Amino acid sequence: MSSNLILSVFLRSKEMEHAHRRNVISAVDSRHGTGEKMDLEKIWQKALSNTEIIRPRVQGLMTFSDTNVPYILLSESSINVGDTVVRKGEVVVKRPALILPPNNPQFSGFDFEKDVAQENQFINFLLVRGINIPSLGYNNRTDSLDIFEGKLSKAIDHYQQELQMKENVYSGLVAGPEDCWQFSILIFICSQIFKNAQTDLRNLLDEHKKNHL
Question: Mean of the per-residue pLDDT values for the chain?
Fold first, then answer.
């Protein structure tokens, strides 16, 4: 077989591989954006049971300004069994310009507006379960959606090592179900906020003392 023919076969196989990869990612993305109404109770319980914060954000959140919280969310692929869906993005936790009433978080980019019939339905859903989310803005942006060719455990090891090698203290690594990704991200963000609560209180007290010297 000539070298040109071998090269042609190789390039064709790589082209087919990339095409398959694009199709899988497109299928994952379209499934998440169908607009079908979600069963909040079912999907929330699923997220609670299956979300794992592998590596929390080491750097604390800002007390007096907005904080960008990058994340990597890993999910077992339901389309390519044995592979892992890799969702990279960030949530901007925004301090409101005006003081908002309690339990009035503002969500953007989580697709709740597509899946929840009324704007406050999701917040009320959490409130009746005793879950209080601070009245901040939570703006989610998905930067990339990709496929890791390997099982979830292998993907976790890969990205954990990658974050450690880069000494990345800003990004969080989370594992959660593919069909309730937004809830897994929200669980991660809330855990960061609650972890930061004591630091926020200390900073507020220090600021108050400084202003009254």
Answer: 77
